[in-house]
Amino acid sequence: MPPVLCLSGLDPGGGAGLSADIEVCKALKAHALPVATALTVQDTHDVARCVPVATTLLAAQLERLLTDVRPAAVKIGLLGSASQVARIVGWLNRLRVPVVLDPVLAAGGGSRLASPALVRALREQLMPRATIATPNAAEARVLAGCEDLDAAAARLLALGCGNLLITGGDEPGDRVTDRWYPGGGAPRCYASRRLRAGFHGAGCTLAAALAARLARGDPPIRALEAARRYTRHALREAYAIGGGRRVPRRERFGPEAR
Ligand code: PLP
Q: Which residues of the chain have pLDDT under 70?
C-alpha cells in the first residue's frame, strides 16, 4: 500500500477534497496521508467559506509525518493560502516523488477558492514541480493568461510541469473533451459523451486516481488511462446525498474501472 501524501481541503459533505482522496486511494490500493490545507463551509451546491489551516500547523504536521513516513507520490488539491505553498515546495524538493497538482481555483458551484496571490504561487512555484497538472479549461486559461487551450497548454508546459491534462467537464457541449499534453510528445484528445448529472468532487477523484497509480509505479500515460477509466466508472455510479450535485461512487472497482 504505497503512501500518497494528499494535501487538500476538508469538505464536510464528503464529496470533494480529502474524503475523495482517501476513498480513491483505498479503492486503488494505496494509502492516503490526508493533510488538511483548509476547512470549508459547503453543501452539494456550492462552497460558502474556505478557512485556511495555519501555515505553521501545516508545516508541523508535514515535519512530523514525513520524518517517519516516505510517500510514493503527492497529490495537491485545494490550498488555503499562498504562504502554504512555500512550505509545500520545500517538502517536494526533499521528497523527489511524482506530484499530481489539481490547481483548484473555483468550486463547481462557482465560488472562487483562490486569491490572486495563491494563483501566482500555483503558477510560479507549484506548476514547475508537477509531474502531472490537471486544471480544467477555465483554470488553465486563468493560470496561463490566454483563451486558446493549445496556447495555454504551451505556456503551462513552459513553466516546467512534466505533463498536462486539461479537463473539459466545465466546457459546454454534449461531449466532454480532455486534452492530454505530454511533455515532449504529441497532444492527444479523449472525448466522451457527457453524463447528464452534475458532479461534486469529480476533479479531486481524477487527480487522486492519477496520484495513486503513479505511487504504484505506473508511467504517466498508463496512470492517465487507468485514472480516466476509474473516474468515469465512479461518475456513472454517482449518487445524490443532497439537492445539488452528485457524489462519485468511488469504492467500487468494477471491470470498467480496472
Ligand atoms: N471543496 C473542497 C475541499 C475541494 O477540494 C474542492 C475541489 O477540489 C471543492 C470543494 C469543489 O469541488 P467541485 O468543484 O467538484 O464541487
A: 252-258
Q: Answer whether 16 contacts ligand 1 (Cβ < 6 A).
A: yes
Is-contact 115 81, C-beta < 8 A?
Answer: yes
Of the candidates 79, 17, 16, the one whose C-alpha atom is nearest the C-alpha of residue 44 is 16
Can you give the pLDDT at residue 185? 87
User: pTM higher than 0.85 for the full model?
Assistant: yes
Residue 132 and residue 163 in contact, taking contact as beta carbons nearer than 8 Å: yes
Question: Is residue 118 within 6 Å of ligand 1 at its C-beta?
Answer: no
Instruction: Tell me, letter by letter, the H, E, C secondary structure of 142-189.
Output: HHHCCCCHHHHHHHHHHCCCCEEEEECCCCCCCEEEEEEEECCCCCEE
Q: 32 in ligand 1 pocket by Cβ < 6 Å?
A: no
Q: Which residues of 130-148 are buried (b: 16+ CB within 10 A; e: fewer)?
A: bbbbbbbbebbbbbbeeee
Mutate to test the pocket of ligand 1, among 204, 206, 245 (most ligand atoms within 8 A of CB): 204
The dihedral through the CA atoms of 8, 49, 249, 175 has a sign that is negative
pLDDT tens, residue by residue, 219-236: 999 999 999 999 999 999
Ligand 1 close to Cβ of residue 204 (< 6 A): yes
- Alpha carbon of 44 to ligand 1 centroid (Å): 10
Q: Is the CB of 220 under 6 A from ligand 1?
A: no
**Residue 165 β-bridge partners:** 180
Sign of CA dihedral 99, 97, 8, 85: negative
